[in-house]
Amino acid sequence: PGSVSAAFQEYLQHLGLQNFPCGLGSWNKSRLNARRSPRAEPVGLEEAVPPGEETPEALLELLRDQHSPWALPPDCSPQDRLLKEVAVLAPELLHGSRVFQLVRSLRILDKGVEEVDEGVLRFQQLEELILSANHISRVPSAHLPRTLKVLELCYNAVGDLQDLCGRPPPELQHLGLGYNRLCGPSQEKHLTADFWPNLVSLDLSFNSLTDLPGLVSQLSTLQNLHILVLQGNPLALTPTYRGFLVDSLPKLSILDDIHIWPEERQHFHGLARQPELIRSEARVVVSIGEMKGLPNPKAFQQLEVGSEGPVITYSYSVTYEF
């Protein structure tokens, strides 16, 4: 599927919400008739059902009993469990577009999604959208429900935040952009309270951000930011990286998955007021312990002085990608 909507439809088919013990069928056909008749009362859990049919309670037990052939797998998501149980207890709620009203958390991982399409707006109650490990390069904010509190886009191809910041969800608390293609310093201007007034957690790890002072000046406007992940960026190689961040962002509680204790904050006190200590360069030391598959120069026979034999020179190069 190329879009989030297409991936969701494929997900619904995989769940089998119309197959026994879910949905409407011969196992609960009286409920089917009740749904067709506007005056009929829905069959409750405790009401008797005609012979040959199953009560909603019995059908629900088939999903919950670990020994049942229809049991939900132990590692199934809360989203899977919710939709399957609703398909047993109230299958009419999953008819047509009403299924979108039930979904509060949508997880579509590694499904080849390339587009966050307008169809995502049908999830009017959506609070969590996880789209990790796909091929998304552009995220139009106009296609995101205003109810979103968590947006996770790690392991994608996002290189520009302009579209995402057009009209972002105002209540967003976590934004995950790790392992993308963000390059500084042009992206820092999109990481301010003007766009994310309620942001608590921000993951920018393993991108190509290089301007530490510029980024910090923007992040300092995020008054609710308590969790920040920047490891894996070139700016994290600078010698005063952690100390400068700890002193510059006093409300930060966790940096790169490491808790900031009062002793550490006291140790780096005043560093933020010394920008001359922030160097825009870093030193990386690489040690090569062993190389295999290459001829050892010492193994070649040394030519005697004055010999007219051919001289063969070997040279090797090592390339590093950062």
UniProtKB/TrEMBL annotation:
**Which UniProt keyword terms apply here?**
Leucine-rich repeat, Repeat
The record's annotation in Gene3D superfamilies points to: Ribonuclease Inhibitor
User: May I have one GO cellular component term?
Assistant: cytoplasm
InterPro entries, alphabetized: Leu-rich_rpt (IPR001611), LRR_dom_sf (IPR032675)
Record keywords: Repeat included? yes
Name assigned to this protein:
LRC43 protein
